[in-house]
Design a protein that fits this description.
Layout lengths: L2 H8 L13 H13 L3 E4 L9 E4 L1 H5 L3 H13 L24
Antiparallel strand pairs: 1-2
Helix pairs in contact: 1-2
Length: about 100
């Protein structure tokens, strides 16, 4: 994702709690901090594209299996208000090997 795309996503107003208004400079500093944790890397710009992109490496660094990724994705997307995981749970892999809806 480009820095601009990350900033736009962070500042989205709908379905966000808390609603944020981050500057591109703040997002850039934070992305560099996450890069130091080796959770993202800076990929070179594609030919014809002026922007570098960040590539996530969470699965490389944390070595999560697909069910673990699905559960952690749910927690990260829904935040501290989540009470249980059930109907509507995200799936990272199609059936029959992926997560099952309960």
């Amino acid at each position: 994702m480009t820095l601009n795309a990350i900033t736009t996503a962070c500042n989205q107003k709908q379905n966000r709690n808390p609603v944020m208004s981050l500057s591109e400079a703040k997002v850039s500093r934070t992305a560099r901090e996450v890069e130091e944790l080796e959770l993202v890397t800076l990929a070179p710009a594609s030919p014809g594209s002026p922007s570098n992109r960040f590539k996530h490496r969470v699965t490389d660094k944390l070595v999560w299996y697909r069910p673990q990724r699905a559960i952690m994705t749910e927690f990260l997307l829904r935040g501290p208000t989540i009470r249980s995981i059930g109907i509507g749970t995200v799936c990272t892999d199609p059936p029959p090997t992926g997560c099952r809806r309960t």
